[in-house]
Each structure stands twice: as C-alpha cells, then as structure tokens.
Design a protein that fits this description.
single chain, alpha+beta, Jelly Rolls, 3 domains, six-stranded antiparallel β-sheet, 7 helices, 18 strands, globular
C-alpha cells in the first residue's frame, strides 16, 4: 500500500511540475537578460543615514523614512518586470514604496506604494504600474519604519521575466508568511502577492491530488482493483502537505507576535502595533478635549481607521457612523464641538480663513488644535 501511494504521488508531482514548466516556458519571453543587482554601497541615501559596518546599514530619520536611490541610465523597464528587496531589522519595516525617473520624463517622479509588504524579502511586480516603461534613468525605494530604526539592506535586484524568476516568485508566494493585520482573524488567503502571475497553492495541490489518483487507477488497470486505503492515503498526504505550509506560516507569525508583544502592558502593545501612530495621536488629542463630555465627531472615509480612532478616543463622547457621511449636517454641529479628522478624509481645511469644507459644500468655522501625520483635531467655533 505504501509503495502504491508513493509511486502515485511521485507521478502526480512530476506531471504537475512538468505542466508548470511548460506553462512558464510558453508564457515567459525568450530573453537572455541577466538580473540587475543594485549595489547598496554605491547607492545614494537621500533620506536617513548610512551606518558604519558591513553591507548597507540604514538608519531612518525622525519620521521613520529611509530613501535609497540608484542611477541606472539606459535600463529598459520592459526587461525587468520584477523587483526583489531583502531587508533585515529588529522589527519589520511597515511599508515599501518604489519610485523612478525615465529619460523621457526627466525629473518627473513616478512610483507607487507596494500593498501588503512582507519582510525580510519583498517581491514587487513593477508592471502593475502603467508608468513602468521606457528607459529608466534613476530608481529608488522608500522604506517606512519607526523613527531612528536601524535596518540592514541585504539585497536589491531588478529581475527579468524568466522561468527561473517565476519559479522563485512561486516559492515566495507559497512559503512567505503574511504579517498580521485587521483581517487576519477572519481571512486566510493561502498565498501572497495576489497580483502576481503565479498559480495559487490550493488549486495546484488539488491538481496534484487528481493526477495522483488518476495514475493510481491507471496502474491498477481500472477501478475494480482500487484499494480505498490507498486513495485515502493519497488524499491524506496532499492534505497534510497543504496544512504544513499553513502551519509553517502560522509559526512564523507566532514568533513575530512574541517578539513584538510578549511581556508588554496593554498600552505598550498598542504602541508596538500597526496602529501605534493612530493610538498615540488620539491619546494626545484627547488631552486637549475639554470639558469632559464634549462631543467629538470622528471624520474618516476609511472604515477601519475611523472605527479604531473612535475606539481609542473612548470614554470621550464620540460620534462615528460607519458607511455614512463623515460629519452630520452643519446645523447639527455646535460651538465647542470637536472634530477628529483621520485621513483619508473628504474634508478640505482652509488654513487662511480657518474653516473646514465638507464634500457636500458645508463650511464649518474651526480652530486647529493639533495636526500630526496620523490626523488633526479641530474645535468648532
């Protein structure tokens, strides 16, 4: 029985691998371009500092930013659709953005923020931007971390669209763990880099299971000689394989959680969380809300940010209505009410005449009390 299970699974796996290789050979352009390694030792660090030591050690500025730039004149964007960034640090950087200049646009900067960045290795599909074309003259990455955070830039490379690159992308997609976010309790996507041209692990394992069962039936010369113990064994191996990948990612997340939050107080955990900037800003703004019981209107067009901001503002007299207009009608607001604006928000602030203008055209005279990157607090006049 064990031999039949092993032979069927090996034949199924060989068929899946052969199919993937045939697909990639057919889909990948016939090019011989070598990867372009962006050497950190010759890079220009525009924001942040370079620390002494081996390799490229960066220190973010007081805003938590580090901007690294390379001059790569004559590099054709179409030859390098993938970017791979390897970054190490005591705490993962929170986000990554890419930017570039072309020979045609001169000093005009193009770029985008990479959604859902994962570390220590981040893969970026550069062709997600329609502006990634032509001859690239300069290329840079923008790293957002914590203020004065030390990071080790291990490797940055632009990769051509080859079979080898796609196989590396597949392994990264299947094996890289996802960082915790507010969806994690209800969502397990089972993959990474959803915009990448790579198959998902679940359907690949399902095809492996189907082909393994098919090979077993063929080897037994029909259904009459099939042992259901072998069928169950093939199914069990495929299931365990899929589950082991999930368990491996889960254990990585647990280690990261322990490193970030173990032994800390409730307040310290919030300051170490992705909501740290929001939590600290709302706490700072709450100290300016007087007297106690004053009405506080939370304005944000992002549901998650608005709800978390309203939660952190408790026990103040907070108003937040999900899925509705950001603020109630002008006539519902009174003098000495407070407006907590958490971006993104569809409110325009006129600093010359001190008023907020809503999307509906309402004009609200206000006094700006505090403004930070995470938001602003206004008092209604």
């Amino acid at each position: 029985m064990v031999k039949a299970i092993a032979v069927s699974l090996l034949l199924g796996a060989a068929a899946v691998i052969a199919g993937l290789l045939l697909y990639f050979f057919a889909a990948s352009p016939d090019i011989s371009t070598s990867p372009l390694i962006l050497d950190g030792t010759v890079a220009h660090v525009e924001v942040g500092e370079v620390l002494p030591g081996e390799g490229t050690q960066l220190l973010t500025d007081d805003r938590g930013l580090a901007v690294v730039q390379w001059a790569i004149p004559g590099t054709q964007a179409g030859s390098f659709p993938y970017l791979r960034v390897q970054l190490q640090g005591t705490k993962p950087a929170s986000s990554l953005s890419v930017a570039w200049k072309t020979a045609a646009t001169g000093d005009s900067l193009k770029g985008f923020r990479v959604p859902d960045t994962t570390w220590p290795v981040a893969w970026v599909l550069l062709t997600r931007s329609k502006e990634w074309r032509g001859a690239i003259s300069e290329f840079g990455i923008v790293i957002q971390g914590e203020p004065q955070q030390a990071l080790q830039l291990e490797r940055v490379e632009l990769l051509p669209d080859t079979v080898a690159t796609r196989l590396r992308m597949i392994l990264a997609q299947w094996l890289t763990s996802s960082p915790w976010d507010h969806r994690s309790i209800n969502l397990y996507p089972g993959t990474r880099y959803l915009d990448a041209a790579a198959p998902l692990l679940l359907p690949v394992v399902a095809i492996w299971l189907a082909l393994s069962l098919l090979f077993y039936v063929v080897l037994r010369r029909g259904l009459t000689g099939v042992s259901w113990d072998v069928v169950a064994g093939i199914f069990l191996v495929c299931w365990i394989t899929l589950d082991l990948v999930w368990q491996g990612k889960f254990l990585v997340q647990l280690r990261e959680t322990q490193a970030l939050y173990a032994g800390k107080s409730s307040e310290a955990k919030r300051k170490a969380s992705p909501d740290a900037a929001l939590f600290e800003f709302v706490g700072e703004a709450s100290e300016l809300i007087t007297p106690a019981g004053s009405r506080v209107f939370v304005a944000s067009s992002d549901d998650y940010t608005g709800m978390r901001g309203a939660y952190y503002a408790l026990p103040d007299n907070v108003y937040w209505q999900r899925g509705s207009r950001e603020l109630p009608p002008r006539q519902a607001l009174q003098a000495d009410d407070y407006i907590l604006v958490l971006p993104p928000a569809a409110l325009n602030y006129n600093s010359q005449e001190n008023f907020l203008e809503t999307r509906d055209g309402d004009v609200i005279p206000v006094q700006l009390l505090i403004a930070r990157q995470a938001g602003a607090l206004f008092r209604v006049l």
